[in-house]
Amino acid sequence: MTNVFERIGSRVLRGCSLLGKTGLFLLESAGQCFVRPYRPRRIVEQIHFVGVKSLFVIILTASFTGMVLAIQGFHTLRKFGAEGLLGSVVALSLIRELGPVLTALMVIGRAGSAMTAEIGILRISGVIMALDAMAIEPRKFLVSPRLVGAVVAIPLLTAIFIVVGILGGGLVGVGLLGVNLGDYFGRMEQSVELADIAGGLWKSFAFAILIGWVCTWKGYNTQRGAQGVGTATTTAVVVSSVLVLVGDYILTSVLL
Amino acid sequence: MSATAPGGARGRLQELREPDGPPAIRLVDVETALLGKQVLDGVTLDIPARRITVIVGLSGAGKSVILRHMIGLTRPDSGQVLVNGTDINLLSRKGLYALRNRFGVMFQTGALFDSMTVFDNVAFPLREKTDQGEGEIRGKVERLLGLVGLPDVGGKFPDELSGGMVRRVALARAMVMDPEIIFFDEPTTGLDPIIRNSILKLVCDTWREHAFTMVMVSHDIPEVFNWCHHLVVVRAGKIAAAGPTASVLASGDPFVQQLLTGDSAGPIRLL
Known about the structure:
- The complex is a heterodimer.
- Chain A contains nine helices and no strands.
- Chain A is mainly alpha-helical.
- The longest helix of chain A has 39 residues, at 86-124.
- The N and C termini of chain A lie far apart (44 Å).
- The longest helix of chain B has 18 residues, at 193-210.
- Chain B folds into two domains: 1-6 and 24-102 and 182-263, P-loop containing nucleotide triphosphate hydrolases (Rossmann fold), CATH 3.40.50; 108-178, no CATH class.
- The chains are: A mainly alpha, B alpha/beta.
């Protein structure tokens, strides 16, 4: 019986220790953003990497998400004779939930995994230790720009996702299913409130911090060679995806 | 600064002189355990200023750990690591970084950025830590690449170079900030004998040119004895012998003699 309590206690202590370490890592890395020299070019490079390079996959995903939403929404709404509300359904679904969540998941797959792998390879090849030995703070050089890049790019990508999704839904709803164009956008204007948009953007902002945090942490603490990089990358993708979905539930509960 | 080379000729370092002035680095009764294993056990050691010191020993004896203590990458459980009289374990991170600005470090694998060209790798510390203009940086990097015998590879990436060339680029990067002390962690491991000796000669020539304090961890026994003034032999986390190379080579300690001669008979039994 004592052994069971010992094991539970040990795991709780390890969990607390990990939480403390990751929390300090995030705070110290974020704090490095305000330490000279600022190097804005490096941040711009990361915004380009996370944002611009993810644009194609975001537009593609968003347009098909909007189209599917339109087909599903149309057939459901038709049962109640409320096809005219299609624009509202598509817009609110995208703004409140699908936009932030799917954007986050897409960015994790495309940019988050690359962040972990890149930092992980620098760790196992000794470059991070070399940076430290050269008196160059590795977190300032490697982590802070990626955090800022994610925080700037992901909300913007979310906004693009929502707009493209609405247009995709409109293309199918108006073009193929025969919903009135005025109804599609008019009802949307009536039902979408500023709080919905703010809520969606808050979510995307929170997801951006989560993604940047988990992916850089896993990369920064990579161990045991090439296999370690693979493990760190997989873990980063799984953990950050799960945290995005859990975080979405918590934020939705708080925001609604 | 130009230093008078022991021996005079641009060959091996054969003569020995007593160190002048206080030691550049002093370890006092340093004890460190890593993952529950005692890796340094009361290490007391002086590294003379403006000399090449080589640390040798069996694998796992604690050579690289000693080097990391000198750079401040590992902190001891007890004891002092004094660099120019300053205990680096008492320094804040900012103070430690200020001290490391006076160091150059060359790691075993070079630790270059694969995504940067050779030129950018060497220029990296200057761009990160100084306000020098690109013209000034270009001049300095080109001069250093010339010094290490690689004047035409600035535009190449590290994966386009041989192992020996990568080490030479790493040496150029280690020197780019005009350090007072350069550390080498097994700079010639995995290289063939000719390239190995050319790297050691390059280190020696660099010393002749600048008279840096140099500390090198090496497995290149006996070649490395020709290229150092001072020799430290580490055995299971303790200093077995330390001093001018000739006096350590003349040591009567059977462990030191077996390590230095590579004889299979003696107190070291691996099989």
